[in-house]
Amino acid sequence: MFAKLPQTLTAPFGLLTDEAKLAFRSRPQGISKLYTTRHIAETDSYWDQYFTLFDTPSDVFSLISPHDIRRALLDSPENVATLIRVVTSRLFNLVSDHTFPSVPPASMASYATSFMMTSSTGRNATKEVLNSLRVLQRVLPVVFEVEGESNAFELEVLWKKIEVDDEIVPTAPEQAPQFVIEDDDDGSESGHGSNTQPQIPHPKRKKTLPSLGEKLFTCVNDLMFCCGFSLPTKIQVDHYKINYVIWEKGVGSTTDSGPNHAYDSNKTEVLRLLLVLLSRQIYIPPAALFTHPSFYTLHVIRKTPRRDVLTLLCSLLNTVINSATTNNMTIASVAGKVPYNHLVFKGEDSRTALVGMCLQVLCVLLDFQSGPARDIASDSGDASSSSPTAQTNAFRYFLAKLHRTQDFGFILSGIIAILEQQLAISNNLLPGSRKSVPYVPETIVLFWKIIELNKKFRAYLLESDKAVDVLAYLLCYSLEIKDKPEQHGLCRALSYIIQTLSAEPAFGNKLSSPINIQIPTKWVSQGASHGTAGDFMITSIYSIIATTSGSLNSIYPALIIALANAAPYFKNLSVVASNRLLQLFTSFSNPLFLLSDESHPRLLFLMLEVFNSVVFHHLPDNPNLLYAVITAQKTFEELGTFTLARGLREIQRVQRIKEEQASKAERDRKDSPQEERTSTESAHQEKLRLLMNETDPAFTVASDIESTSSSGEDLEAGLGGHEQTETRPLTSPPSENSPTTSTITITAVSEKARGKMKARRSLSSDTVSGDRMATAGIGRNGFLPTQEWVTSWQQGLPLDTVMLVISELLPKIQNLQAGRQRANSANAITDFLRSVTLTDILPPAPVLYPRRFVWSDASIVWLTSLIWGGVYVHGMSPLGIWNSTNVRLFFVKHTQPQQRQITDTMSSVVGGLFSPTRQRPERSSNQ
């Protein structure tokens, strides 16, 4: 009697759909039919299961694998074409059907209905639309991969146009735009021009229908502005459910359309399909990126009507900017604030997913410059002055056209709020207790695009009080990610942003302002506060270079250029910042670094420009830097007489010292008692490995370079004849007994030496006959330094200004010190340096010419790869949108996941019970 009761109870609620999903993978009528049966008709009932079987995106991506689609493309390509046509046709019909949208999303009723509809005779139009989007998201990446640079299949299925008999159809009047951005290109093609005259239809014998791809993009745009699906139903006008209204209050809209959080998941689904369509370019190799532009992206940025471009651009932008200020009290948002909750629950709330998707779409659209979408160069021919037009890329063009001050304030406040949120998470009392903001990299790229395209926004930023805060946030995030190899591309982007900002005079005028935000103590130099923006900029750039062991050498030029651009505006630099500049200079002048790469002398040249700019523009305002330069006299003099043979001898001498230190450490270890040898064996091995690694000609930087600070006694003692401030080269910190750390005796430069200053630089008394073979182990990537190459850059170093300052000031300082007591000499020297003027001795100050970041083909390809690499990584979990496909734009390196390690701070809190040293053997055994 009760034998069939379980089936009777569960069937109406659709709880047996798991059996149907499993059957879809195993039965002949499931996914296997797609590649085993040829020429399945479009009217076959086989296609119905693609719309009704799946309940979530995970169902589609788990039940349909890339291998299935790839096999169908090889064995039965016509079935894949039929699948695309059937799915898109059903999608178009459902969007225009009166039953869509069927039920409000994200409610308990819809949640229950999604299960009950499978066993009832009703039809869930919303579910079918979502499944249509999901199937296309799964199928199209594999189609793009198989096609590669060839696109015959796509042209036939998605972009083929058909001619039919024309019929006179009355056109509906266009909706009034929500706001207007002034367009200089009136009457522009591709739908971006505004026509005020009504269009009168003229009958024609034949007309060309839009291709399937064009209709798909139109449908996607409609779905993003469909009342009841992605917008509240209350804004629906009559029976027109498609209403192009900006999603949220912000740019272009002063009114809010109402609560939208219930529709966030639906917006995410539509944007995911749009992102998949735009991802066609990741299957093109970098060399062909400009010659084979994506049809899909070109259509979006050039053929989308002006109204749709403006509404979509502002909707995406406002959703992102409002993310940090919106108080959405959902279960996921509340749970995300619980410490360490993200380690237990791996899910992501719908709002965070939507913001991340909006940022990804924005970055992709604003970055695209392939083929006819390339910016138009100005008449002057300057590459840095090229700009987009409405015909090249409408999204870039209209972003550049924003001009209202309230819009700039809204955008800047939102971006700062996101960066502030990330900084608060990294500076939390409980390390790792809160999950990082997942879309910070995309936010930084968006900020870069805005300051690049919109000059008015860049001027607004630099003139506001928040310019210093933005610089601090960018530097803090660079310090946070500098030790993560997977984030080094973003570090490079940050260096270019800082270089872009530093080229503006308004930026330099802000460097004397104090930093208002709370800098984490781990990024503040020991014994000093972060002080002004200029101090923090110098110490941060030093930390990025000095603690990354050469792994970020590709961003050194941009960071040093930023210092050179900002140097004319440096005022009242602190002792720590001044010493950091000298340490960078000493490290770049190290022979091992200079001779290892052809581009390294340029960094030395830029550092000398930093000193010269300070001397020419703000010499009395920087006594600490002036003192540091005077005490480094020997380094400047040795650089003036540098030769290849002398550099090689210095490198060999340092290497011999390191070998002796390593052998001495090994002897000490063997001579130590057995119990001490056992307890310290790992430490000696680690030290030996580090010492041997320091002989690498690459630019390796020690992470334990001591921060230097000069007190009054240090200042007095240093000027008395011995240098007490220790400046170690970035290549390797020598030991205390190393001759390279001997004290530097400061002697005045005689007039005779000054007269021979230039002659000494060109002197080549040392021969290189026996040392040429030794250079083979110094240069990197096949580079072989020669004396001719050394002479070519050594004679062009701008050393005269610094040597002139040293020769003029050093005798006066020594005379001043000799006539005073030790306690008063430091203050007297500082006062003297503040009052010194050398205008009658120094040559005229050169004209300021900041080095701006200039886009090239290589940099455009690099940024495109960086953006799509981030999109690819975000798509790997939980769906794996582009997984198991052959991406050609960038290289995908898969690594095995490592066990989570408890942080050092938490280890100290719990008394070291779970310290990394205790866990290391256990982890290695598990792996």
Write up what this structure looks like:
The chain is mainly α and 927 residues long. Helices cover 52% and strands 1% of the residues. The protein is built from 41 helices and two strands. It has a two-stranded antiparallel ribbon with strand order 1-2. The chain is elongated. The relative contact order is 0.07. Residues 1-16, 105-121, 186-196, 687-766 and 900-927 have low confidence and may be disordered.
**Share of β-strand residues:** under 5%
Task: Note poorly predicted spans.
Answer: 1-16, 105-121, 186-196, 687-766, 900-927
How would you sum up the major sheet?
2 strands, antiparallel
**Euclidean distance between termini CA atoms:** 55 Å
**What is the overall silhouette?**
elongated
The neighbouring-strand order within the major sheet is 1-2
Fraction in helix = 40-55%
Determine the structural class based on helices, strands and strand pairing: mainly alpha
Number of E strands: 2
| SS field, number of helical segments | 41
Mean pLDDT: 79
Query: Radius of gyration, rounded?
Result: 33 Å
